[in-house]
Amino acid sequence: MTHWITLLAVEEVAKEGGLFDLDATLPLMAIQFLLLALILNAVFYKPLGKAIDDRNEFVRNNQLQAQERLSKAEKLAQQYEQELAAARRQAQTVIADAQAQAQKVAAEKIAEAQKEAQAQREQTSREIEQQKQQALASLEQEVDALSRQILEKLLGAELVGRR
């Protein structure tokens, strides 16, 4: 086709002697250029443009989906952080309650042990006092018995010596 155009151009130059004639070759060249442009557009540019547009649409969709997933992930992370903070507060409350309860139980046990110790001391003191009283009573009886024996021996010897 290019040879044919070249031949037409050479014939025209030879006939008229000029490069640009305004006869039928100029419209013919314009028609050929438009046909070439249409063929190139149909064969190469439209599929290439479609592939580029499809790729741009794919990238745009993936970017939008990624942004949506990122926002969802951020919302979930924030929600989980709030739940974690609430769980920590609840755990601290439970720990504080348990410590208070343990201290209360320990104080009650200590008070109970002190009462028991006091009661045992008092009972031991009473038992000691009772044993002391018994020992004193026993000693008094023994002293009385010994005193009588001594008196009997002394008086008995006098009574026996008087007899």
| Beta-strand residue fraction | under 5%
Arithmetic mean of pLDDT: 85
Q: What is the helix fraction of residues, given as a range?
A: over 70%
Report the structural category: mainly alpha
| Helix/strand order, N-terminal first | HH
Number of strands: 0
Number of helices: 2
Main sheet record: none
Distance between the termini: 189 Å
Shape: rod-shaped
Radius of gyration of CA atoms, rounded to a whole number? 64 Å
Low-confidence stretches: none
Transmembrane segments: 24-45
Protein name: ATP synthase subunit b'
Organism: Aetokthonos hydrillicola Thurmond2011
Keywords: ATP synthesis, CF(0), Coiled coil, Hydrogen ion transport, Ion transport, Membrane, Thylakoid, Transmembrane, Transmembrane helix, Transport
Task: Furnish the topology, listing elements before pairings.
Blueprint: H1 2-16, H2 25-162
Protein name: ATP synthase subunit b'
Subcellular location: Cellular thylakoid membrane; Endomembrane system
Coiled coil: 56-149
Can you put this structure into words, describing what you see?
With about 160 residues, the chain is mostly helical. It starts with a helix and ends with a helix. It has helices spanning about 1-15, 25-160. The relative contact order is 0.02. Helix content is about 95%, strand content about 0%. The mean pLDDT is about 85.
